[in-house]
Amino acid sequence: MKIFGILVTAVLTATAVNARSGLSNIHEPLNTHENFIVAHGWGPERWGCSFTRTQVHESGSGTMITIGKDSEKKPYSCGELIHRQDRLGYGTYSIEMIASNIVGQVTSFFLIANEDTEIDIELTGLNNHIGWMNVWHDHIQNPVSINLPFDTSEDWHSYSFDWHQDHIVWSVDGQVVLNRSDIATTPPDQANYKLVINSWAQVQPEINIDWAGKFKYPKDGRVPKARYRNMSIEPIIQL
Ligand SMILES: *[C@@H]1O[C@H](CO)[C@@H](O)[C@H](O)[C@H]1NC(C)=O
Ligand SMILES: *[C@@H]1O[C@H](CO)[C@@H](O)[C@H](O)[C@H]1NC(C)=O
User: Fold this and answer.
1) CB neighbours (10 Å) of residue 100?
2) Number of domains comprising the chain
3) 9 found inside a domain
4) Residue 38, CB-side half-sphere exposure with 13 Å CA sphere
5) Other C-beta atoms lying within 10 Å of the C-beta of residue 235
6) Quick one: signal sequence residues (predicted)?
7) Residue 62: CB within 6 Å of ligand 1?
8) Within-domain flag for 16
């Protein structure tokens, strides 16, 4: 697998120790949403959609999030699931996804704290042979695009990130695609990290046009959809 972007070797001198305990492994087939908050009635200002419960569909084979046209507030409706387990910490976070192939639709899985630190995996319908691995810190994004040897919209593939105190390792189908130790993350005992699954529509072409593209609802009958199953969290036990 080819890696576009920088592979970074600088090692941080982080000193914080996460003394959190009591988190055990979580496996979510995503057949139900009992352990999630289903976002409803809001969505970041610049997005072209508002999170709407009815766009998040559960089934025996996982979860599907669709983009709809029934939003009262924004051009479109979209969906988000937030896992109820909060105060998450270092560990491995993984999921299987089938991305949308509609330009402008984002299929994502990420950890977020205080809208200040985010560790992301984002697939966009602009290019289904790329996966975006991103880490946000101090309001700065650090995305890296990874060339993938398959079409992310055609089949299930697993995507994961391994969050450690001084580095983050992203993997696709069990193969390491990126390892970064150049970006600090706020330690988990200083912020409330939550795990989020969402799919949304970008309508402002001037923002990130080369990343997701501008969403237009397909006129050919295709339903803009993103699928998810088998999410898991394996915390690193801090001694
Ligand atoms: C992944 O999800 C599928 C469909 O829900 C299920 O059949 C399978 O057992 C799951 N795999 C794992 C490793 O949980
Ligand atoms: C990632 O980089 C860190 C720091 O350079 C290193 O300790 C770790 O072993 C690397 N992990 C993998 C999977 O390459």
Assistant:
1) 28
2) 1
3) no
4) 16
5) 22
6) 1-19
7) yes
8) no
Phi/psi of residue 43, each to 5°? 175, 145
Look at residues 108, 115, 39 and name the one whose alpha carbon lies nearest to residue 71: 39
Sequence letter at residue 127? N
Residue 173 lies inside a defined structural domain of this protein: yes
Q: Is residue 227 part of a domain?
A: yes
Q: What is the mean pLDDT of the chain?
A: 88
CA-based nearest residue to 95, from 237, 233, 200: 233
pLDDT higher than threshold 60 for residue 7: no
pLDDT at position 18 over 50 = no
Full residue range of the structural domain in which residue 180 is found: 23-237
d(CA 57, CA 162): 28
pLDDT in tens, 59-102: 999 999 999 998 888 999 999 999 999 999 999 999 999 999 99
Helix (H/G/I), strand (E/B), else coil: 187: coil
Q: What tokens were used for 68?
A: 């709809």
CA–centroid distance, residue 11 to ligand 2 (Å) = 10
Q: Has residue 224 got a pLDDT over 90?
A: yes
pLDDT for the residue numbered 205: 66
pLDDT for res 15: 28
For a mutational test of ligand 2's pocket, the pick from 164, 167, 168, i.e. the residue with the most ligand atoms closer than 8 A to its C-beta, is: 167
Q: What is the CATH number of the domain that holds 227?
A: 2.60.120.200
How far does residue 179's CA lie from ligand 2's centre (Å)? 6
